[in-house]
Write a structure and sequence with these properties.
Distance between the termini of chain B: 30 Å
Number of domains of chain A: 3
Number of helices of chain A: 8
Helix content of chain A: 25-40%
Helix content of chain B: 55-70%
Number of helices of chain B: 21
Largest sheet of chain B: none
Radius of gyration of chain A: 28 Å
Strand content of chain A: 5-15%
CATH topology of the largest domain in chain A: Immunoglobulin-like
Order of helices and strands of chain B: HHHHHHHHHHHHHHHHHHHHH
Order of helices and strands of chain A: HHHEEEEEEEEEEHHEEHHH
Structural class of chain A: alpha+beta
Oligomer: heterodimer
Chain lengths: 402, 635
């Protein structure tokens, strides 16, 4: 008897634990990567469908489970002799429960296809009609803000963001306005990656040789001077450091965004001129310039590694992975990274050991172990580089930077 | 001499057949029942290895930002080999164990159509499996630095030599090619067996459901494996000879690999689940003491799943940007697969409805299948919708989904089959006590491990990630999943120990038909004599044995019809050529690594490769010739 009730008890226990113990929609508060609390029109379009389908599926699950549980309890062996009635089937009933799932599936297919075409629309052209040259106006008669176009390039293992019209390049640090559409042109020059900032919306693969577009308009009113920090990550397995390929997104108020563009185009300014001069010298001596670019530093034009202009705006190190302001000494964190990045992010330093295996970071002066010792790079040089990088701040650093 | 005495003698002759249990007899066996047992135990051992790899994964993910346990590289190797092992070396061969053991018994045949080829399939599977795992041992010995690390899906262009130098991916490619070869041969063998060797009166619609589902699976195998084989060959060419099928800078397209892989990979999903569905369709009716409700609907649903299964592959690629029309089309076909699946679930419940359900261990495993598979099926419907999939793809939600389908579904169905057919295989029931503990641990473990993964996915945790950030809400559920993984592992340990105890003679001794079942496999002694049927039965319905016992139908059980059978049954003799051919063929494949391995063509080693392959090729030719010349006529 106890055996015959075992599965029923187990089933009830599971349903109860699901009903009480779990939060169905993790909200942003403790879950910065949540995929079910979107802040863009694109995200909301998919979220509406996500929620609809989830509720349909949950109702089916509960009904089927109850039916199964009822069957198991009511028709358990009562120990009486004789066999039950031998029923081989019932055609009407079976046609019925063939048609029923078709109907249920239709309730999901129709909104699905509508949403597919809705999110596949081409993004608005921008501020000016390309045919007539006239400034486009919105419903209120105000000029339409031009769509921000950004090329997103997946690297091993970091992200390059190239603003097409603004001529700005950032590494692992995407800044977007809240008052106009943003159109991302996603591609890769290494292996397949996938761009996923879950709160903005679904992911798109970065496929070498192809460009995938993803466009959205934030429906979040960002207060002036208070950027909203959104997180993103690579979702497609891309090799050794796949799990450590993240990025930070800053949503800015429209006017702030325009100021941000102007500051980034002009390049970083330094309160202390010696930080700049010493830093530029060390940046060259350390070999950094071969791969990294910094606006305003004529020697630093490398494009193999992330653009390091306005490094002081970034809260995270090594493609969004290490919080430099999370309590530990920021300078020490950055120094440790420069000395031995492989210890924080495996796979970064190995390119120097043969040249073909990784498109990771080259450490020009490093020995085979990828570590830069005091002999390879003197302490003063590293300190100058650290000061040089951290001093480059715009008016809009990522929240969390003191 | 009285009639009763004759029956006695005949029946005992059936049961007490002296069996040759020497190693040589197992190496040269062509008996489908022995090959089935070989498949079963090999698969369970590979399953243990895959499970161990899963434990490495779960321990690494127990805490956020953990970097001391295993390195990122090792982690990537672990999930690659975990999936490859579970798909190709555990669940597929566990299904093959039942194809082998059951199909001839269920259709009233004395063996499969090509007994020696059947043995060859097994040996190739075994060598392919060992070959795939060789890099792990080489790494442990320090000979190579990396083992296969491209994921079970091996996405190009990352698996090309530029990003994956070294021999690891070559091991993976060649291993899968060998396994594909084995599966293809088995597929043709079983199709021929099912279509040609049925007992008199066993029409297609009188065939047991397991045989039906197996037939569908064999067609899926022979139609889908060639596609991945082509894909693997192109990859091997890209890696070894510098072709550019998948290499974008020279005009190749990595998405070509994804299409070829998923054209195989999605039917593969049904190759994994349909045999378990077949087993459940056998087990539930027996313990409800009713026929399967609407058997034709269940059969046609299976065929429908197999057919539509070829038209849904791109739902693995919704995020690659195929365009709205392709997304809409593949989304629709994918959702339509939910219809035949739902029909099956309703029919299983209707089978139990109005029955007298006894909760034996095999039946509880089968009910567990129905319940857990429903969860996995429903979450599958969710990402059949491309916009939803954009948020779920490559997140832990997908991991939750397919583990419910493959562990909660396929594996529970196969375990139901093992406990159900064990008495037929060994003449004893499995000891109950440990069996129940194992089931309880599985049931708890599966839900504790995989249910939280739905939430992890919704919270944005990506798959195949060595580390996840702290403080983003992922800690609790990950810890829970790790605890669950150990429950599953403990459950499997109990299950396996129970099987070993069973092998050593524990468990209640049973007769021909311990569960009061309905189909032909229960109509002869347990374990069956090597010729299965002393006299082939004449079948008059889809439940011949039930009709004999309960409806006064014409007899099919050997205890009744076997008594006026001829004294001698002709059976094919054992052969060592399958084993030899598999060795030469495995060697031929492995020799590719000499000249082309490591992602670069080595001209100096190429000579050695050609020589070795020449030897192996001549060996193959000689073996095949000897195979043809061998007198394999039944005697």
């Amino acid at each position: 008897m106890s055996k015959s009730r075992l599965p029923v008890i187990a089933l009830l226990a599971l349903v109860a634990s699901l009903a009480t113990g779990c939060e169905l929609w993790p909200h942003e508060a403790g879950y910065p990567y949540t995929s079910v609390d979107p802040i863009s029109d694109f995200g909301h379009a998919t979220q509406t469908l996500y929620a609809t389908i989830t509720y349909i599926v949950l109702v089916i699950f509960v009904l089927v489970s109850l039916l199964l549980a009822y069957t198991l309890v009511v028709f358990r062996d009562d120990g009486k002799p004789g066999n039950p009635e031998q029923i081989h089937g019932n055609t009407q009933l079976e046609i019925g429960w063939t048609l029923l799932p078709i109907l249920i599936v239709l309730t999901m297919i129709i909104p699905t296809i509508r949403t597919i075409f809705e999110i596949a629309d081409a993004p608005p052209v921008g501020g000016v009609d390309p045919a007539t040259g006239e400034v486009l106006l919105d419903a209120d008669g105000k000029p339409v803000k031009p769509t921000v176009e950004v090329r997103v390039i997946g690297k091993r293992w970091w992200w390059a963001f190239e603003y097409v019209n603004e001529q700005i390049t950032t590494g692992n640090h995407l800044v977007i306005p809240d008052d106009r559409p943003v159109s991302l042109l996603i591609t890769s020059d290494t292996v397949i990656h996938s761009f996923w900032a879950p709160r903005i919306g679904g992911k798109r693969d970065a496929v070498p040789g192809r460009v995938n577009r993803l466009w959205f308009q934030l429906d979040l009113d960002v207060p002036k001077g208070e950027p909203e920090h959104i997180r993103g990550q690579c979702a497609e397995y891309c090799g050794e450091a796949h799990s450590l390929m993240r990025f930070e997104v800053l949503a800015l108020d429209g006017a702030d965004y325009e100021q941000w563009v102007a500051e980034y185009q002009a390049g970083p300014t330094f309160a202390d001129a010696s930080v700049k001069s010493k830093g530029e010298e060390a940046f060259g001596a350390g070999g950094c310039t071969a791969c990294h670019a910094v606006t305003g530093n004529p020697a630093a034009v490398g494009a193999i590694g992330p653009n390091l202009s306005f490094f002081g705006d970034r809260r995270y190190l090594g493609a969004g992975i290490e919080d430099m302001y999370g309590g530990a000494d920021t300078e020490a964190v950055l120094t440790a990274w420069i000395r031995h990045p492989d210890a924080i992010k495996p796979g970064t330093a190995l390119l120097g050991t043969g040249g073909t295996r990784f498109d990771g970071m080259v450490i020009p002066l490093a020995k085979g172990d990828g570590e830069l010792s005091e002999e390879d790079l003197p302490k003063e040089t590293v300190d100058a580089i650290v000061a040089y990088l951290l001093a480059q701040k715009s008016s809009f650093p990522t929240p969390g930077i003191e | 001499m009285s009639t009763a005495a004759t029956t006695e003698v005949e029946h005992h002759a059936d049961v007490h057949e002296e069996e040759d249990n020497s190693l040589w007899s197992w190496l040269t066996t062509v008996d489908h029942k022995r090959i089935g047992k070989l498949y079963m135990f090999s698969a369970l051992i590979f399953f243990a290895m895959g499970g161990l790899e899963a434990l490495f994964i779960r321990v690494q993910l127990m805490y956020p930002e953990q970097s001391e346990f295993i390195s990122a590289q090792t982690y990537n190797e672990m999930f690659t080999m975990h999936a490859t092992t579970m798909v190709f070396l555990a669940i597929m061969p566990l299904s093959a164990a039942f194809f082998n053991f059951l199909i001839p018994l269920q259709i009233g045949a004395r063996d499969v159509a090509f007994p020696r080829m059947n043995a060859l399939s097994y040996w190739l599977f075994l060598f392919g499996g060992i070959f795939l795992n060789v890099p792990i041992f080489l790494k442990l010995l320090g000979v190579v630095g990396v083992t296969p690390d491209g994921g079970w899906f091996g996405y190009a262009n990352m698996t090309l030599s530029k990003y994956s130098p070294g021999m690891s991916i070559d091991f993976w490619i060649l291993g899968l090619a060998i396994l594909g070869n084995s599966s293809m041969m088995a597929g043709f063998n079983f199709i021929t067996t099912i279509l040609n060797l049925r007992a008199p009166g066993m029409t297609l619609f009188r065939m047991p459901i397991f045989t039906w589902m197996s037939l569908v699976v064999q067609f899926l195998i022979v139609m889908s494996f060639p596609m991945v084989t082509v894909g693997l060959l192109l990859m091997l060419f890209d890696r070894s000879f510098g072709t550019n099928f998948y290499f974008p800078p020279n005009g190749g397209d990595p998405l070509l690999w994804q299409h070829l892989f998923w054209l195989f990979g999605h039917p593969e999903v049904y190759i994994l689940i349909l045999p378990a569905m077949g087993i459940v369709s056998e087990v539930l009716p027996v313990f409800a003491r009713k026929p399967l409700f609407g058997a034709p609907f269940v059969i046609f649903s299976g065929i429908m799943i197999g057919f539509v299964g070829f038209g849904v592959w791109s739902h693995h690629m919704f995020t690659t940007g195929l365009g709205p029309v392709a997304d809409a089309a593949f989304s629709t076909t994918t959702m339509l697969i939910a219809v035949p699946t739902a029909v099956k679930i309703f029919n299983w419940i209707a089978t139990m409805w109005g029955g007298k359900i006894s909760f034996t261990l095999p039946n509880v495993y089968a009910i567990t299948f129905v319940f857990l598979f429903t969860i996995g099926g429903l979450s599958g419907v969710m990402h059949a919708s491309p916009p939803v999939d954009l948020q779920q793809q490559d997140s832990y939600f997908i991991v939750a989904h397919f583990h419910y389908v493959l562990v909660g579904g396929a594996l529970m169905g196969l375990f139901s089959g093992i406990t159900f057919y064990w008495p037929k295989m060994y003449g004893r029931k499995l000891p109950d006590g440990l069996g129940w503990i194992a089931w309880a641990l599985f049931f708890a473990g599966i839900n504790v491990t995989f249910f939280p993964m739905h939430f992890l996915g919704a919270m944005g945790m990506i798959r195949r990630s060595w580390q996840y950030p702290a403080g983003v809400g992922l800690e609790g559920y990950n810890l829970m999943a790790t605890v669950g993984a150990f429950l599953i592992a403990t459950g499997f340990a109990f299950f396996f120990v129970n099987l070993i105890r069973g092998l050593l003679g524990a468990g209640e001794k049973v007769g021909d038909d311990p569960w009061d079942a309905a189909t032909l496999e229960w109509s002869m002694a347990s374990p069956p004599p090597h010729y299965n049927f002393r006299k082939l039965p004449v079948v008059h319905s889809d439940r011949p044995l039930w009709d004999e016992k309960h409806e006064g139908g014409s007899p099919v059980s050997q205890a009744v019809i076997g008594k006026d059978a001829p004294a001698h049954v002709e059976m094919p003799p054992p052969s060592y050529w399958p084993l030899l051919l598999a060795l030469f063929q495995g060697g031929f494949f492995a020799a590719f690594l000499i000249g082309g391995g490591g992602g670069k063509f080595d001209a100096s080693a190429f000579g050695t490769q050609v020589m070795v392959q020449l030897v192996m090729g001549l060996g193959m030719l000689f073996t095949m010739f000897a195979w043809i010349r061998e007198d394999a006529r039944p005697r």
